[in-house]
Amino acid sequence: MAITAKMVQELRERTGAGMMDCKKALTQADGDMEKAIEILREKGLAAAAKKAGRIAAEGLVETYISEDGKVGAVVELNCETDFVAKNEEFVKLAKNLAKQAALSSASAVDELLNEKYIADNDITVKDAVTGLIAKLGENMTFRRFERFNGENGIIADYIHGGGRIAVMVKLTADKAEGLNEVAKEISLQIAAANPQYITKEEVPQDVIEKEREIYRQQALNEGKPEKVIEKMVEGRIQKFYKEVCLVEQLWIRDQDLTIRKYLDNKSKELGTEIKVEKFVRFEKGEGIEKKEENFAEEVMKQTRG
Question: What PROSITE patterns does the entry give (predicted)?
């Protein structure tokens, strides 16, 4: 019996198994859908579908920079438990995804998931993730990536806490000598101080206006007279910039210097203007709402099941 793309798609939707595995199972089952499902279940490949609803908030953030420094990427691969995050195969998958993201031209996760997997051209990236879900028995999500181009500058990376926080930064300058040390310091700063922007000019106007409104309301609640409120608001906006803008932050190694001053000093020392062109900071699981399970209820569910 001829195996159609529609049949493969249906089996994928019903089992969550990879496309190639579905096609092989249907071929083996001579097109019998139920038999194909049994084949996949026997191989452990249909288990993934049952795990797709579980919250994956653990995992790793990983980086990759090509040997020539021309491209780099940061990725986040999530799983359900810290135990699986330390699994050798999970770590290897995260490293391969970082390399794939750096060398790919994909602009979104879905696009990258449909590419041929860098470590096995017979399967897609999605198949590789699904296959490991089935093997290790936990839901996994390739959540995000950010790619860097190292032309006209240098890329540096830093991973903190065994894969909890990953930073990548690009510096530009006319001369590369001495830049690695500066890039390392800036990466450490970003990991520790978590800036949202490089300069004041990058902060969107709507964000500034929202902060102004909050500070204005705070001053009113404090009973401050109208004539001093605007002055107070502007003072708090300047403090806000020092918290969220990289170059306005105090340098973690020397609180007498801002990052702007540190860069100015290094620029003079190295005889070239150094600029931070781009940075990204991924923290594992940030923004993912972790599901709080009632342990007693979970035990009862399993007992009843």
Answer: EF_TS_1, EF_TS_2
Q: Residue type for 275, please?
A: K
β-partners of residue 75 are: 62, 145
Residue-number span of the structural domain to which 259 is assigned: 200-264
In this structure, of 45-49, 60-64, 94-98, the range with the lowest mean pLDDT score is: 45-49
Q: Domain check: are 29 and 88 in the same one?
A: no
**pLDDT tens-digit readout, 211-228:** 888 888 888 888 888 888
Q: Say how many C-beta atoms besides its own lie within 10 A of residue 250's C-beta.
A: 17
Buried b (16+ CB within 10 A) or exposed e, 107-145: eebeebbebebbeeeebbbbbbbbbbbbebebbbbbbbb
Q: Which of 52, 36, 51 is nearest to 1 (CA)?
A: 36
Give domain status of residue 276, yes or no.
Answer: no
CA distance 284 to 162: 11
**pLDDT tens profile 96-111:** 999 999 999 999 999 9
State how far the Cα of 251 lies from the Cα of 111, in Å rounded to an integer. 38
Q: What is the CATH number of the domain that holds 45?
A: 1.10.8.10
